[in-house]
Amino acid sequence: MNIMRILMLSLALFAGQMTMASAADGTYHFGFKKSVNGQPPSIDQEGFKGLLKQRGAVFTGDQSQKELYLTFDNGYEQGYTGRILDVLKEKQVPAIFFVTGHYIRTEPELLKRMAAEGHLIGNHSWSHPDMSQIPAERIQKELNQVKEEVAAVTGQKEMHYLRAPRGIFNDRSLSVSQELNYTNVFWSVAYRDWEPKQQKGWEYAYKNVMAQLHPGAVILLHSVSSDNTEALGKIIDAARAQGYQFKSLDEMKLRTP
C-alpha cells in the first residue's frame, strides 16, 4: 500500500472522528462546536479544554479581534500547492504548511518556495502515526526527523508548530512535544475537504469556510483539495471585505484556550 493510500485511509478515519472526543483511555480526537454567525466556536463540552490549556495548545487566537490564521495540512501533493502559493503571493497572505516526511522527500521545490515566500513550515510528523499510541522516544524521532530534513531542504532552522496527525492526542503526546518546544496547533474552522475524489466545486468550499468565520479563527484546509484551491482567493477577498486580517501564527499574541 503506497503512502498516498495510507494517508487517505487515515483521513477517512479522521472524518468520522473530528467531532468526537473519547477520554476512556485518556486519548482524544479533536472536535469542536462550530461557529455560527460569527459567534465563538466552543470546545467546552469536549472534555479536553483544560488539557489544551495546561499544555499551551492553540484552538483559536484572540476572539475579540478580527484576525484569521490560515493553515494547510500537506501529507502528499495533488498538484495544487503551487497554485495555492500563487494566490497567497498575489493576496499577500501568510500561511503555515504542516508537512510529513513523504511530502519533504517528494516536494523539495515546493518546500523551498514556501520558505522563500515567507510562509511557516510546521511539523505534521514523519510518518503520520497516531501519536497517542507510540512511545515518547518515537514521538521525538518523528518530530526531529521532520525538523532536520526541512532545515536541510530550506535552511529553516527553527520549527515551533505541530499539528497532530488526524487530530489525535493525549497528555503524553502533548507533553513530549511541548518539551521539544512545539506548540500544538488545532483549528476552529474546518470541513470535509481531504478526499480528492469527493470534491464538490469551489462554491462548496467557499460556503463552508465563510459560514464558520469568527474572530481569532484558525482555519484548517487540506492542500489536496481542488475546491480549496479554486475558492481560496475568493475566501480571502470576502473575509477582508468583512474587516478580517490574515496573520502569521508568529503574530498570534493571545492564544485560547
UniProtKB/TrEMBL annotation:
EC top class, as a word: hydrolase
**Residues of the NodB homology domain:** 66-247
Q: Known PROSITE patterns for this protein?
A: NODB (PS51677)
What would be one Pfam family of this protein?
Polysacc_deac_1
> Which UniProt keywords are present, listed alphabetically?
Hydrolase, Signal
PANTHER family, A to Z? GLYCOSYL TRANSFERASE-RELATED (PTHR10587), PEPTIDOGLYCAN-N-ACETYLMURAMIC ACID DEACETYLASE PDAA (PTHR10587:SF78)
Q: Which InterPro entries does the annotation name?
A: Glyco_hydro/deAcase_b/a-brl (IPR011330), NODB_dom (IPR002509), Polysacc_deacetylase_ArnD (IPR050248), Spore_PdaA (IPR014235)
Keyword Signal (UniProt): yes
Signal sequence coordinates: 1-23
Q: What is its EC number?
A: 3.5.1.-
**GO MF annotation list:** hydrolase activity
Keyword Nucleotide-binding assigned to the entry: answer is no
Q: What is this protein called?
A: Peptidoglycan-N-acetylmuramic acid deacetylase
- What Gene3D superfamilies does this protein map onto? Glycoside hydrolase/deacetylase (3.20.20.370)
